[in-house]
Amino acid sequence: MLRVKAGDVDRMGLLFERYHRKLFSFLYHMLGRADTSEDLVQNVFYRMLKYRHTYTGEGEFRTWMYHLARNVLADHVKKNRHATHHADVADFAEKIGGGARADERMEHEQEVAALHRALGRLSADNREVLILSRFQELKYEEIARVLNTTEGAVKVRVHRAMHELKTIYLRIEN
Amino acid sequence: MNCEQVQPLLPEYIHKHLAPADHARLEAHLAQCPVCQEELRATRQVWQALGAVPVPEPSEKLRPEFYAMLAAYKQEVHEAPGSGSSLAGFWQQLRALLAPAQALRLAYGLGLLVVGLAAGYWLNGPKVAAPADQQQQLAALTTQVEQMRQVMLLALIENPSATERLRAVSYTKELGEGANERVVEALLSTLNHDENVNVRLATLEALAQLADAPSVRMGLVQALPQQESPLVQAALADVMVLLQERRSVLPLRRLLRQPGLNQAVKSKIEESLKSLSPGRPAAPSTTPSSHETLHYSRPDRGAGLAV
C-alpha cells in the first residue's frame, strides 16, 4: 500500500486481488445483500485510491481497509436508513438443489439459514465484532484498532454478541 | 477464575487466541464447572455453525469493474495531478486563479458602467440647474474661438503656401461680424498684392460679404485700379454692380481706358458701368474737362450700339 501511496497506483490491483473477497464477505455479512456489497467493495477501493495519502504505514493495511469499509458502510446506512439487514434466503434455497440425502442437506442448510437470520437480527455493533473476529479472523487487538477502542472492550462486546446470537439462534431453532 | 470471568474468554479459547496462562486457568475452571462446560459447548456450536454460513462469491463483474475504476482514476489523476507539482498542476492552479478573475472583470465592468452613469447624471444636473451660467460660458467660449480664428487668419494669410492663404481667407466667412479692422486690412492687402489669382478671387468674395462696412467698400473701390488679372477685374466689377457702388464708376472708366485690356473684361466693365448709371442723363452735358464726361460717351455709344 505504501507503494500505491507513492504513486504506483497499479499496485492497487494487487491489493484488490488479495483483499476483495474478505472485504466482500465483511460487507455481505453486515448487509445481507450481495449486490449492494459489491458496490460498496468498489467504493472502498476507490476511497483507498483517493485517500491513499492518509495511510501512514503504521499498523496493518487490513486495519486501515476495515476502517475505510466501516466509513463506507456508515455512509450507506445513512443514505438508506430504512434498509435493514436481510438475509437472501432465496440464495440458500437455490444452493440446496436436489439429489441424494437432500433431506439431510436441507436440514443443515436450514440451520445455517437460521443462523444467518439470527446474525441479521443482532445489533449492528455486535454483528460487527462477531464478523470481524469470526469471519475476518482478526485478533481482538486488531479489532480494537479498527473500532478505535480497547482490547478489553472488544472482548466484552464479542462475549455479549455471542450470547445474544445464541439466544436468538436457539429461539429460531425451536 | 469464576464463571463470570471465564465466559467472556470462551470465544478466544475456541480460537486458541488466549495467552497460555489464561488458557491453563480457564481449562482448570472448566474441568470442575459443568455450567461453563455447557456454555462452551453451545458457544462452540454456534461458532462453528457461523463458520458454515456461506459467503457467496462476488459476481464476475466485480473484477472488471474495479479495473475500469482504477483506469478511470489513473486518467483522472493524470489529468489533474493533485499532489504533483508538475507543469499541468501549475496550469490547473493558474486556471483556478483566472476563473474568479473573469467574475472580477465582469464586476469591474459593471462598476465602471455605474460610475459612468453617475458621472453623466452629475454632469447633466448642473447644466439644467444653471442655464444662464452656461450661456455666459458659451458666449465667452465663442469669443475666444473667434479671437483664435482671427489670429489664425492673420498668421495664415502670410503663409507662402497659396492653399494656406486660401484657408485663411475662408476663415472670414466663419468670423462673420467678428472681422475687425486688422482683418479687413489684411484681406484688402491680400486682394491687392497676393500673387495668386485664386487667393485674390477668394479674398474678394470674402470681402464682398463684409461690404456693409464703409471701410471695406472704400477699400474695394481703391483696389480696382490695382488689379491686373482679367478674372479679378471682372469679378470686382460684378461686386461693384452688386453693391451699387457709384464711387467705382470713375476707376472703372479709367480701367477701361487702359491699353491691352482683356476684351471680355472690357465688355464686362461696360455692362457694369451701364447698370451702375442707368439712364444717367448727365453724360452729354458734362464738361469736357472732366474725366467723367470723357468716359460717359462710351457707355452711351455702347448703349447706342445695343439699341
TrEMBL record, chain A:
Keywords: DNA-binding, Sigma factor, Transcription, Transcription regulation. Transmembrane segments: none annotated. SUPFAM superfamilies: Sigma2 domain of RNA polymerase sigma factors (SSF88946), Sigma3 and sigma4 domains of RNA polymerase sigma factors (SSF88659). One of its GO terms (molecular function) is DNA binding. The keyword Isomerase does not apply. GO terms for biological process: DNA-templated transcription initiation. It comes from the Bacteria. Pfam families: Sigma70_r2, Sigma70_r4_2. This is RNA polymerase sigma factor.
TrEMBL record, chain B:
It comes from Hymenobacter elongatus. Residues 272-307 are annotated as: Disordered. Residues 292-301 have a biased composition (Basic and acidic residues). Residues 3-37 form the Putative zinc-finger domain. This is HEAT repeat domain-containing protein. It comes from the Bacteria.
